[in-house]
Amino acid sequence: MLAKLKESSFSVIPIIILVMILNYTIAPIPSWNIVLFLVSAFVLIMGITLFNLGVDISLIPIGKHIGSALVRTRKLPLIVILTFFIGVFITMAEPDLIVMAGQISGVPDSVIIISVSLGVSLALVGAFLRILFQVPLSFILIGCYILAFILSFFTGRDFLSIAWESGGVTTGPIMVPFVMALGLGLASVRADKTSEEDNFGLVSLCLIGPIITVLILGMFFNPSGGSAMTVPNLQSVSDIALLFGSNIFEYIRQVAVALFPMILTFAVFQVIRIRLKLKDILKISVGTIYTYIGLVLFLLSVNVGFMPVGYQLGGILYENNSGIILILVGMVTGYFVVSAEPAVFVLKRQVEEVTSGAVSARAMGIGLSVGVAASVGLAMLRVVTGLSLLYFVIPGYVFALLLTFVVPHLFTSIAFDSGAVASGPLAATFMLPLAIGAAEAKGGNIFTDAFGIVSLVALTPVITLQIFGLIYSIKSRLVKKAMVVPESDDIILELDYSSPEQEDEEPAGSSSEGVKDNADASIDKAAN
After folding, report:
1. CB neighbours (10 Å) of residue 517?
2. 315 and 345, same domain (yes or no)
């Protein structure tokens, strides 16, 4: 509990400090709204703490058990069908998706959530089949992104940014750990030893899947009006208490509906296939309660106070200052948000271990922070200038996909998964409302100018990780070249192959030739 509290605090505190600095300098916010923000931030920290603890205790074990149980059926059609429905259930419970759907006026929340869920489900099935049939991840990603680029020119203009945004918000705190745990079970269906890169790549496909389905949805729907967010008019502590009290029951119901299909699926598997002991069932049940309470607190704090104040701050920033200030504030926000993201710490350690220290965690952290700072700065530039999102995502992903031909396959898999790491909960709950508030203050179209910030945040880590992979590949080649034994050394080794007793007389096919072969093999192995 204390470890999770520390993680969630480090995620939210940089935003609190930034808002307080802006409040007392260039963007003053009404005092009671600041109080609302601070209360919401405290509730948010508690919500993320309980939610992450619950995910570790319940959702990840549930994913592993369901994945293993599916594999044991040994029936491919059944595995595909159940994997599809599991993808729907986990996506419907994703808090970031629920938050984003509520910000799109003119399109029912259920339509957005169902479309995204279908995209994730199809991607999850595709990811499983990729593992089973050993199809290179880069081939699938290139095909999917080319399809997304083509669809982008046919979908509605106002829906374009929403579609690209949907991938980043979907790969959130429920979907990512559950999918990776499920993948560990599904990957064991192969008779041969599963390669390490098969443990990655699942999330990257679940990121592009909803982008494609929502691009198709944009051919039939169009959002209307402005933002669905409102800034509350507060006069006292009782107003804040009333605001929380009047909304909490709605989120209690909403979270129950979102989590119920997943829990029901596990219950059915428990009765039919898994049959865990009572102790394990109780542990998962307690974790599920943590997840439920944490998710209620998360959605309550975000919708009641965190997002409205972020929205208000964006409007005040643009009205009181120039567009340059908005871009600089966005860059600072992006830098510190990603540097404090707990999942980034895991990613940095993971890459350092995979490369045996050739790529350091510190260098990775700086690279990711600078990359995300640049992406948020570009997002704010779009708010100021109205540039299309396609000017950034098409060149960005084309460059990232070209890098897959020169970067080790493992780095490609990790890189495309890493987009989900940077686009954490704060991207959808604070940075997007900040951009929406600024866009409305400017008088622009929030759907074309503000939406898309999460997709840009998800793009830069993909490029950053692959550049580090390229550096690692170059370093490896240089080390290998340096370890090649010179020809003169070969002669010295040849002189030393035979013992003095063997020098006088050595019949054909003697063991000295075998010794020489072994030595040559050892040299080759060392060089490799």
Report:
1. 11
2. yes
- Do 516 and 478 belong together in one domain? no
- pLDDT confidence bin for 340, thresholds 50/70/90: low
Q: Distance (Å, rounded) from C-alpha 449 to C-alpha 469? A: 33
- CA atoms of 281 and 190, how far apart (whole Å): 29
Tokens 């890189």 sit on residue: 415
494 and 466 in one domain? no
Q: Which residue in 197, 213, 137 sits closest to 354, CA to CA? A: 197
Rounded to an integer, what distance in angstroms lies between the CA atom of residue 456 and that of residue 470?
A: 22
pLDDT value, residue 528 = 46
Using CB atoms within 10 A of its CB, is residue 179 exposed (0-12), middle (13-18) or buried (19+)? buried
| 13 exposure class (CB count in 10 Å sphere: 0-12, 13-18, 19+) | middle
- This prediction has a pTM of 0.81
Query: What total number of domains does the chain contain?
Result: 2
Q: Which residues contact 248 (CB under 8 A, 6 or more apart)?
A: 296, 300
Burial (CB < 10 A; 0-12, 13-18, 19+), residue 520, is middle
pLDDT digits (tens, 9 = 90+) for 159-197: 899 999 898 888 777 777 777 777 666 665 554 544 555
Residue 302 DSSP label: I
